[in-house]
Amino acid sequence: MSEVSYLEKLLDGVEVEWSPLGKVAKKIYSGGTPDTKKTEYWENGTVPWMSSGEVNLKTIKETEKFITEDGLNNSSAKFVPENSVVMALAGQGKTRGKVARTRIKLTTNQSLAAITFDDKKINSDYIFHFLETQYENLRQISSGNSGRGGLNLQMISAYKAPIPCPDNPKKSLTIQAEIVRILDTFTVLTAELTAELSMRKKQYNFYREQLLSFDDGEVEHLPMGQEDIGEFIRGGSFQKKDFTETGIGCVHYGQIYTHYGTYTDKTKTHISEALAKKCRKAQPGNLIIATTSENDEDVCKAVAWLGKSDIAVSSDACIYKHNLNPKYVSYFFQTEQFQSQKRQYITGAKVRRVNADSLAKILIPVPAIEEQERIVSILDKFDTLVNSITEGLPREIELRQKQYKYYRDMLFSFPKPEVAEA
């Protein structure tokens, strides 16, 4: 059955009316924040209190913070019933215009609007799924198109939603419920896969720590810069502006945070052959390490280069040439054993750095090459499962999210009036 015919069969010729949310909602209102300087409003609080950032969770079953009854009574915070919709009026980044549905009774801050409904007329989850399709449009109509813009209650009240069979609430609810059922099938699958991914990541971290930890005397722990182990070489000589469509592969230090995982055999970018001749290069099997970051956790993130040719490496990164298994070393950089040693060498205030000379002092356990390979073979399976966008759980989650968006947009493709929004 085609998409259009399915929607037509679902509607069965009934009328669809685009109605302002202020007309179909029971109430639309914003929340408030108790005085943060008064501990009696927060300490040992039992009233769930939701901040605007939590809207990204989509379905709210618990909140990060709680306020006291005194905090509730001495602020503009108001209760929001379970099975309501909340929308971010403002917020950092791309939060504004996002929606979530509540599954508990809670309060919110002033940057969230609560939209409540009469469940005998409107399925709140139906409105939630519809407003998910309207994110970009809501941002466009909000005050200004910059990141500082904001929505207000009047805008939300005037915003129109498609209500099938408005004169027959029972039939309307049946249609709304069927649309919700279909879309929730995908959201449940995504939630299950996300929970599975979280569990597998914990498993992965546990086994990585265990496999790279050795009893005293079991293996030697040697300085990474020891002559027969390896050496660190600073990168340099090119910037982002030097990227070209083709040429010699290169790794910019910033890409180690945003693009690469534990290892790679392809580069995202290239530079010209002429410039590459002036650059320091990583050879197959070398590690490339970002030596600069804005935070302590990310500094010294590393990627093993497993490609077939030499590649250029930017400044604020260094190359580790060694005689170990490259993946083994890259996995070691992710352990607490490495991180705890690294912290003593971090310098700088706003920009945090670890230099090559300091990295050379860090001790690495050096088992036989066969043991390194055994450890790598185990960790590779976990790495693929939790990080691969082509084979692992992230790929499955991405596919389910695409399916959800596809069917959501199809199921809400009701005929629109000339002006369907405020």
Structure description:
The protein has helices at 3-11, 21-24, 69-73, 124-132, 135-141, 153-158, 169-211, 253-258, 273-276, 326-332, 336-343, 356-359, 369-387, 393-411; strands spanning 16-20, 27-30, 47-50, 59-60, 65-67, 79-80, 85-88, 99-102, 106-108, 112-116, 160-164, 220-223, 230-234, 248-251, 263-264, 269-271, 281-282, 287-290, 292-293, 302-305, 311-313, 317-322, 352-353, 363-366. By secondary structure, it is α+β, with helices and mostly antiparallel strands. It has 2 domains: 3-165, Adenine-n6-DNA-methyltransferase TaqI, Chain A, domain 2 (Alpha-Beta Complex), CATH 3.90.220.20; 220-365, DNA methylase specificity domains (Adenine-n6-DNA-methyltransferase TaqI, Chain A, domain 2). It is elongated.
Structure described in brief:
This protein has helices at about 5-10, 20-25, 70-75, 125-130, 135-140, 155-160, 170-210, 255-260, 275, 325-330, 335-345, 355-360, 370-385, 395-410; strands spanning about 15-20, 25-30, 45-50, 60, 65, 80, 85-90, 100, 105-110, 110-115, 160-165, 220-225, 230-235, 250, 265, 270, 280, 285-290, 290-295, 300-305, 310-315, 315-320, 350-355, 365.
Strand ordering within the main sheet: 2-10-7-8-4
Q: CATH-wise, what's the superfamily of the largest domain? A: DNA methylase specificity domains
> Which radius of gyration do the C-alpha atoms yield?
27 Å
Percentage of residues in DSSP E strands: 15-25%
The shape, in one word, is: elongated
> What can be said about the biggest beta sheet?
5 strands, mixed
The rounded distance between the terminal residues' Cα atoms is 34 Å
- How helical, in percent, are the residues? 25-40%
Q: Helical stretch count?
A: 14
Quickly count the domains. Answer: 2
